[in-house]
Amino acid sequence: MIEMSEAPAIRSKWGQWQTVEEQISRDIASGTLVPGARLPTEIEIMHRFSVGRHTVRRAIAELASAGKVRVEQGRGTFVEEQSVIRYNIARRTRFSKNLKEQGRVPSGQPVEELEIPAPPIVAAALRIPESDPVYMIVRRGFADDVPITVSRAYHPVSRFPNMHIRRHQGVSVTEIYRDFGIPDYLRHRTTIFTRLPITEEARLLAQSQEQPVLVVQKVDVDMQGCPIGYSETVWAGERIQFAIDYDEEPGNVDAAAGAQKE
């Protein structure tokens, strides 16, 4: 049986299952529990953390939902054999291409499509008045059926009429741009930072709300430098690793790309 590292003191009765989940997540991330390893039994975890059966089952359920462990009836709970995704960021970053090059199967799921007045940050990025209508398109991105992103993309209604309908139908942004006379486009600016997810983001990413996410804000421009899209993509931090690639245009540091567009 593989031993987990010593558990920290339980912070409070309310936070018991989160503490158990957090410690096991750390053991997986650190290699104490390697891919394919069987976790200690339910009773052993109860004794180690001084918690009840319900607490352990809730923690294991959350870990399974996040894709970190799998429960096999009659055999036990095992660490999933998943590697961190290396996501390359460059001037022409494409979600599907990135994942396919690593042997992953990319997919997407519509969450919400709305037409709204451009919020200040979106209006500034797209260089349009705040009153101008934009489509806000919210989607989930998957790698091998594991959720890795929640993206909110904004596009001017005047330039891309009915874009939200086509995105709901699964048409890629690249294809939609092409249909509107934009055969190629670049990333103008990328901002990356970390924070804790809000409740809905944690639910959509199938992770704990106490696990940090990576947030990527970026602006797309056409080949004339006119902004055509702004997005904020929330990535499951423990499942992704970014690599910045400037080989396409050496020396152009400000032109790094980011986030999901296919």
UniProtKB/TrEMBL annotation:
Domain HTH gntR-type: 14-82
Residues annotated as signal peptide: none
Gene3D superfamilies on file: Chorismate lyase-like, Winged helix-like DNA-binding domain superfamily/Winged helix DNA-binding domain
Keyword Transcription regulation annotated: yes
SUPFAM superfamilies: Chorismate lyase-like, Winged helix' DNA-binding domain
UniProt keyword DNA-binding, yes or no: yes
Superkingdom classification of source: Bacteria
Keywords, ordered alphabetically: DNA-binding, Transcription, Transcription regulation
CDD domains reported for this sequence: WHTH_GntR (cd07377)
One Pfam family named in its UniProt record: UTRA
Protein name: Phosphonate metabolism transcriptional regulator PhnF
Lineage of the species this protein comes from: Bacteria, Pseudomonadati, Pseudomonadota, Alphaproteobacteria, Hyphomicrobiales
